[in-house]
Amino acid sequence: MNLEPHQIEVIGYCAAFLTTIAFLPQAIQSWRTRDLSGVSLGMYSLFAAGVGLWLIYGLIIEKWPLILANALTFALALSILLLKLRHTSKHRK
């Protein structure tokens, strides 16, 4: 498969958009309902750390699809993780 560099970038941006937008429903539902009982603290902790590393990697290699997607995904995952941590600590008291 012979693709031009701009075609490869378009694929990267499409992948970045789709994987990032996939987190919006969970984030919106979590913010609205504050019901995080189905959210795994371990999974979101590992996921947020992984996305943070992908963001650092994107910054190092200066690839905007990686940077933009992972910055937004990191923010969404971190917001859900923080809500989960707050929810977990309230129920322990």
TrEMBL record:
Query: Which superkingdom does the taxonomy of this entry point to?
Result: Bacteria
For this UniProt record, the keywords arranged alphabetically read as follows: Membrane, Transmembrane, Transmembrane helix
Q: How does it sit in the membrane?
A: Multi-pass membrane protein
Q: Which residues cross the membrane?
A: 6-24, 36-60, 66-83
UniProt entry tagged with the keyword Transmembrane helix: yes
Write the signal peptide boundaries: none
Where does the protein principally reside?
A: membrane
Localization terms from the record: Membrane
MF (Gene Ontology): sugar transmembrane transporter activity
Q: Cellular component terms, GO, for this chain's entry?
A: membrane
Identify the InterPro entries for this entry.
PQ-loop_rpt, SemiSWEET
Q: What is this protein called?
A: Glutathione synthetase
**To which species is this protein native?**
Polynucleobacter hirudinilacicola
- Name the lineage: Bacteria, Pseudomonadati, Pseudomonadota, Betaproteobacteria, Burkholderiales
